[in-house]
Structures are given as structure tokens and as C-alpha cells.
């Protein structure tokens, strides 16, 4: 995909970062992990519903763009959440209850170039 040119609108993206160890080391069913990502994405949209980028993202219902990345473990996910908070990036860290296990996080929709540098070390979830 070509980068946005001068004057062209930025592509809004909602990033979701899921712990890959849940599937690959802790043997969670794939459906349960997908459910965690859905919870986080929905919660991030709900928490930032009135945000202009969120409203624009929702207005383009048939062309929403999400990127799902993998964090290797709980420490990496929690560290990312701390880094995003320090950078002022709005997100929701989903903590599965009643187990109290951080499973994933989702950012509110942002222009890709605004947040992608903060997520560069995370690869697509496999």
C-alpha cells in the first residue's frame, strides 16, 4: 500500500495486540483468544466513541481497517500498554475476569502513521 500523499486523508486503523503465548504455549483455544480481541476492540471503540477519529472510522463501516499483532507474553503486552499510556495513546488493556489475566489490548482508531512507530516491534499475529 502506498503511503498517503500530501493533502490526502490518512487511513484510520484500529490496532489490536494479542498475546500469542495464549495459543502457542498455554494452549488456549483459538476461538477464546479471538473472543478476547473482540472484547478489547469493542471496549476501545466504546470508551472513545465520541472521538472524531472513532466517529470517522465507524462512518466508513464497510471499509474498516484493523491490524492484529502478536505480543509474545504478558510482560510484553503490559510493557506496550505502559508505553502507549506514556505516549498519550488511547487504548484498552483487556483483562479477562475472573482470572485477572491481561490477554490483549486495542487502540482506538488512529491514523496509521501516528501509532505504527510505537508498534513496530510487534509482528502480525499468527
TrEMBL record:
Family annotation (Gene3D superfamilies): Bit1
Keywords from the UniProt entry: Hydrolase
EC code: 3.1.1.29
Catalyzed reactions: an N-acyl-L-alpha-aminoacyl-tRNA + H2O = an N-acyl-L-amino acid + a tRNA + H(+)
Name this polypeptide is given: peptidyl-tRNA hydrolase
Annotated GO MF terms: peptidyl-tRNA hydrolase activity
Amino acid at each position: 500500500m502506498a503511503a498517503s500523499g500530501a493533502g490526502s486523508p490518512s487511513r484510520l486503523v484500529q490496532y489490536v495486540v494479542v498475546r500469542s503465548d495464549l495459543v502457542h504455549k498455554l494452549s488456549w483455544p483459538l476461538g477464546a483468544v479471538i473472543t478476547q480481541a473482540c472484547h478489547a476492540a469493542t471496549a476501545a471503540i466504546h470508551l472513545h466513541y465520541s472521538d472524531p477519529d472513532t466517529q470517522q472510522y465507524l462512518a466508513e463501516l464497510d471499509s474498516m481497517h484493523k491490524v492484529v499483532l502478536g505480543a509474545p507474553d504478558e510482560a510484553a503486552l503490559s510493557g506496550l500498554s505502559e508505553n502507549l499510556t506514556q505516549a498519550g495513546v488511547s487504548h484498552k488493556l483487556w483483562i479477562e475476569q475472573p482470572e485477572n489475566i491481561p490477554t490483549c489490548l486495542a487502540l482506538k482508531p488512529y491514523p496509521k502513521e501516528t501509532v505504527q512507530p510505537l508498534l513496530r516491534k510487534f509482528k502480525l499475529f499468527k
